Amino acid sequence: MYEGKLIAVVMPAFREEKLIGETIRTVPEWVDHVFVIDDASSDRTGSEARAAADARTEVISHEVNQGVGGAIVTGHRRAIECGADISVVMAGDGQMDPRYLESLLQPVVRDGFGYAKGNRFFAADSFDGMPRHRLVGNLTLTLLTKAASGYWFLVDPQNGYTAVTSDVLRRLPLNRLSKRYEFENDMLVWLNILDVRVADVAIPARYGDEESAIRLRSTAPRLLSVLLKGFWRRMWRKYVLWSFSPIALLLFTGLFLVAFGSLVGAWTIAHTLGPATASAGTVILSVAPFVTGIQMLIQALALDIQATPK
Asked: Which residue has the higher pLDDT, 40 or 131?
């Protein structure tokens, strides 16, 4: 146990026969349960995991590949069944340094946070040596996830080194979470809807011989779709359905005014090409709603930032 809390480690693994054994052996002794989820690997991941297992380790094999999110959900469900207080995710490829596990747990155990995640980009030199396209991609994804999830202070949203309480897991619609690499982003959206406090913990990256299975061309469209749907789901559930908030009024009215002003402006431009000129009234009919709408959207953004669970 860790400070009186029963800890379970969920270890999703897909084709990790070379690394899974050593990863299992590095889990600290005070962890109570280790659930290795072999996500229908075509290699010897399952057998290597069983060979390295000790009394606290259970290997669960999926017959059909469900994706990393699906594997994590399976592990979280098993952690709840075993009575764990906190469920930690550590990938089967050894990227998540167990030396920082206590740092990840401390905000949850001592400070009352419901969820904690690692942040690899906590230092000024964290991006040094990273290719420009990956740098741009990480910054863009961070900004989009901030807007979709409402956790405006979080960085490195794809970091899968996480700790979550069983109480929070019971409140989450686990069957509705995304099953693949967009799992962390989707989970953050649901956590904000439930008003769960989230901590960002500085944990440096650790890379070795692992190979990434992410395919950008197929993952990026799914990720963008999840973020867009997640944003509107959060707006609807948190600011309309459960309590009609000024944020909803400002957002929807602002969007309407911006759209109206843009349409009138486009119509004005189209009908004044050449010798014709637009009247002052027509220009005002376009500009005034557009500017007012922009101001309302900025105010909605400011209120959403203030509403971040703290």
From this structure: 40
